[in-house]
Structure formats: structure tokens, C-alpha cells
DNA sequence: AATATCGTACAGTTTATTCTGTACGTATTT
DNA sequence: AAATACGTACAGAATAAACTGTACGATATT
């Protein structure tokens, strides 16, 4: 029979934070952000920067920058409580939904950016003059061009797939 | 009218490598691995470590460890050519399919691991004695327990979702 | 058998990321 | 208005990741 005391619940919580953080890493969160995020998630009430700092044993500055990052990703929100001067933050409602939304959004955005970069380069390549080049270079250009077309198609596929994911997502225990 | 010369095709290729690498980062590849992978992908024929080293301007040791990593992820394969002593590697056929497979596999594996870790801790928590604890700790234990159950559900959902993705994937231009 | 070539283990260096303390602007309290 | 509390910009320190050169075992060549 194991006894739970103050010490061991802290320990378990720390372990949980680290374990869940690994999963969040998959969804593109840095380890630092993940730790902060899970800390907020496990805390039933909104937290101040000082509380987070205390809970994680890291500086308040780190909390400040971490929170900003999580806010940008739409995973955390600021809440107001009458009479409290300090900023209060909490993990967003519908955590898992938001997590997926954030991830999917990030992926689509990135895919879109990279796609247009590639299209720009593809255009640059195809509209250029190939006069006076030896056959080797012409072949290389052709090969590269073909690959780039495939890449662009792939990025389009990513955009579509993640769009489908977004509209079909079905996780809802909350 | 832009003229293509040796210099500029190298430049474009480098840009393409860096751009596509960003997308691969989303799928959990490190930047170093991505660069190597795209280099192989853009090269029509299998490459030796020395060729990669030369193409990327990095040491052969880096190529060796990078290739090992890509092999483990199932993204690269070794090929044999009669009379060639050096190891030859190429990006796998059905690149995009493999990329997704690898990614999905990675995610499911990770989700599974974290799930069982969490279940173990959950069990530890629920089977322990709560005698002689004040109400505050009991509440904290309850809260934590509830969160962990949600987390476990979430990991199960990930496993299922990615399994569905795996069987439904529809990208096929190759 | 001796020599050369190849791939990688290992340890140390370089580079990038993360974290911290100080300092300062803004807002609140006295 | 002075003093206190708060959040964050910034620069430097600590930590982690990526890269390299040397060394060595294994295989191939002479």
C-alpha cells in the first residue's frame, strides 16, 4: 500500500508534465512551451506568472516569453478576475480541440508558405533562358523542375488533407 | 531574361533544399536530417557518403550519422551497384507515401508509449492509500486523476486517428 | 602479407537554443 | 508625487544540438 504525501503528488505531477510534454512535442510545441502548457492544464484555476515560475522552478522571464508563445498559438488565454492586479492565464477550454486546431493551422500555414516559395522558384527556373548550355545542365534543370512540381503537388495535398482533418475532427470528451 | 549557369542552378537547388526542409520539420525530421533527405531526393541517382558530404558541405561523419537516422525512419534505403565498393543510398521510392507512413508511425508509437506511462502513473495514484490526508490533498489527487484520464483518452484518440489516416491516405502521384 | 579504402565510434569544438538577472516603462497604491 | 508592484526587453550565462577530426576495425586491392 503506497502512501501519498505532499512529496509524492508533486513527483507524480512532474512526471505527468514531462510525459504529456513528449506528446505535445509531436504537435510542434517546444519542450519549454509544453511544460508550461501542461502546468496550466493541470492547474484547476488560472495562474499568475509568479505561480508558474514557482511551479516549474524557472524564471519569471521564461514564463513571460513562454506565455506569449502559447498565446500566439492560441493554446492559452488571459482571464480577468476582479481585484487581481497580476495577469492570469489558463489553458484554453476544449484543450484537445484547440491543440489540434493549432497544430493543423500551423501545418497548413507552413505548407502554404513553402508551396508559394517553391512555385516562385519553379517559375524562375522555367522562364529562364537555356541558351548555350550543355546537355548536362539542361538535364539537371529538367530533373529539378520535375521534382519541384512533385513537391508543389505534395504541398497542395498537405493543405487539402489538413483541411479535411480540420473539418472532420471528432475528439470531444469535453 | 535570366540566364542559368552552373552557379545559379546550385543556388536554386540549395534554396529548394532549405524550403522543402521546413516542411519536413513539420513531420518531425530534424533540420539536419531534412537537408540530407532532400539532397538525396533531388539527386536522380544513389549517392555515396562522400558525394553527400560534398553536396552539403558537411563532414562525412555527419552524413554517416544522418543516414543512419534516415534509415531508422524508413526514409532512405541502401542500394547495391556491381563494382562499387562505397555504400550507396537513395531516398525511398514513393517518397511522399513513406514520409507520411514514417510520420504516422512515429506519432502512434510515441502516443502509445506516453499512454502506457500515464496509465501506469494513474494506477499508482488510484491504488494508493489516501488515509490521513487533509482535504486539500485529496482534492488535488482527484483533480490530477481526472486530468490523467482525459489525457489517456486523448492518446487513444491519437492512436485511432492516425490509424485512420494511415489506411485512408490518398496521395499518389508516384 | 602489406597497403589502401571505407564507414563509424568517440571526444572535443562549434553553433543554436533556452534560461536568467538586471533594468526600465507602465500602472497601481500610498 | 513618491513608492511599490508588475511585465518584458535585452544581454549575457547555461544548456543542448549539431558538426568535425582523429582513430580504428573491417574489407578490398596490390
Structure summarized in a few sentences:
Two copies of one chain form a homodimer. Chain A is mainly alpha-helical and 174 residues long.
Task: Describe this entry's structure for a reader.
Two copies of one chain form a homodimer. Chain A is elongated. By secondary structure, chain A is mainly alpha-helical. The longest helix of chain A is centred in the C-terminal third of the chain and has 34 residues, at 135-168. In chain A, strands 1-2 form a two-stranded antiparallel ribbon. Chain A contains six helices and two strands. Chain A folds into two domains: 6-91, Orthogonal Bundle (Arc Repressor Mutant, subunit A), CATH 1.10.10; 95-168. The structure holds a DNA duplex (30 and 30 nucleotides).
Which CATH top level class of the largest domain in chain A fits? Mainly Alpha
CATH superfamily of the largest domain in chain A: Winged helix-like DNA-binding domain superfamily/Winged helix DNA-binding domain
Q: How many structural domains in the coordinates of chain A?
A: 2
Low-confidence stretches of chain A: none
Mean pLDDT level of chain A: 88
CATH fold descriptor of the largest domain in chain A: Arc Repressor Mutant, subunit A
